[in-house]
Specification:
three-stranded mixed beta sheet; elongated
């Protein structure tokens, strides 16, 4: 493969700076967009890039990025055949003599591009994200995942999802691979509730959907003894739109999940 020259990287730098400028121009006047940028930066815990480089990674489609050796330190390796298609801005220094003291000092002379690999291009030890709770349960995520796939026939996968703990399109559920067992279960129950309530195709307000799904999942978690806290967002949305929240649906879906995931499963086990 031909080595890419200076002209290539100069153009890439110019294009990337233009894209960053456009993203920032839009984001800095929108609370929601600013929250997204902050959420991506908080993924960190895993790298020490600047906020600017965090955004640079995000606009190139990356989630968490590291150099080849950076991933090795995290006990992950870059998959064979992968190429570093994401770049960050790296400062360059050179030694210069101070005119007054004559001592050599490192002086910043500019920024160049440095290649990095996204987590999706690596394999190895699981990464742990800081949104993991300290809660523990006798139930395992893998067992619950298997039951849901068998009984409800939803496809469930795990991958790095950044600050999101999980999401669904109504047919497939994605869970953050960076969560611990308890938080994977909590998220799985919440996303399953969205699916059973058919929220994806519903025109109901997003706040009401979240309250309904969270309400059902809280009931299920309470049933199995998983610690949880009512989030301020949940309480706020409930107070704002109590008249639009389908309370019967919450109870119905919670009952369905409890019976399918726990009660009926226990009966089947005893009968076997």
């Amino acid at each position: 493969m031909a080595k890419k020259g200076k002209a290539y990287y100069d153009k890439k730098k110019k294009d990337l700076k233009g894209k960053l400028d456009s993203v920032l121009s839009n984001a800095l006047v929108s609370k929601d967009e600013m929250d997204k940028l902050s959420a991506h930066y908080r993924i960190g815990g895993l790298y020490h890039y600047s906020f600017y480089n965090s955004i640079t990674i995000a606009v190139q489609g990356g989630e968490i990025a590291q150099s080849f050796n950076g991933w090795k330190k995290l006990k992950r390796t870059v998959k064979k055949g992968e190429h570093a298609n994401i770049h960050i801005f790296r400062p360059f220094f050179k030694k210069v003599k101070d005119k007054d003291t004559g001592k050599e000092e490192q002086k910043l002379v500019g920024f160049g591009l440095a290649p990095v690999f996204d987590v999706s291009q690596t394999e190895g030890e699981d990464l742990q994200y800081d949104h993991n709770s300290e809660g523990v349960t006798d139930h395992t995520y893998e067992e619950m995942k298997a039951t849901i796939q068998e009984k409800f026939e939803y496809e469930i996968t795990e991958r790095v999802t950044g600050s999101a703990r999980g999401f669904t399109d109504g047919k497939k559920i994605t869970i953050s691979s960076m969560s611990n067992n308890s938080d994977k279960i909590k998220t799985l129950i919440h996303e399953l509730a969205h699916c059973r309530m058919e929220h994806i195709s519903s025109k109901k307000a997003s706040g009401s959907k979240e309250v309904e799904a969270e309400g059902a999942s809280y009931l299920v978690m309470s049933y199995v003894g998983i610690d949880y806290e009512l989030s301020p967002a949940y309480i706020g949305n409930w107070q704002k739109g109590a008249d639009k929240i389908d309370k019967k649906l919450i109870i119905k879906v919670a009952d369905e999940m409890i019976k399918t995931l726990f009660v009926n499963k226990e009966k089947e086990a005893k009968a076997a």
